[in-house]
Structure prediction request, 174 residues.
Amino acid sequence: MAGMDRAEQVAQLIEPSLAAMGYRLVQVRLMGGQHRPTLQVMAERAADGSMGVQDCADVSRAVSAILDVEDPLPSAYVLEVSSPGIDRPLLRLEDFARFAGHEARIETRQPIEGRKRFRGQILGVDEGAVRLRLAAGEKTPDGAGDCAIPFAAVEKAKLVLTDALIAASLKRKG
Prediction:
């Protein structure tokens, strides 16, 4: 695991167990200072994307047991397990495909078509790129309303909380 940061090490350690329990690991982040950092683990049920309080407790117990044995962090930490939320981060190319039709904010590492920030409806993915229909008033320099953002260039992305996203979330739960 040389060359990985601590959050990546933790993700690699816990992901197989969470998958065996029926959960999808969304993100692992180590936040805060050296004294007592917070280890944030975001997960969801693989079957339907839900994550209730009992799910968080189950994941927390499993992660705690793994980390007690493997001990990848050099100091004491606070473990925080949560769902990714409705306006979740989009971290994998498959996330963009899964949430096609919904609105997202995307920031890129370097400018693409003269800009680093994009907002619009996810149209899907194509050959390693996220296809996006830009929000009203957000056009590319050539005047196009649609653009393709190479996934490798995405620095961070998340869904935008909209009525349509809330309705879709309620429909999944109902």
The beta strands are 23-31, 38-45, 78-82, 103-112, 115-126, 129-134, 146-150, 154-159.
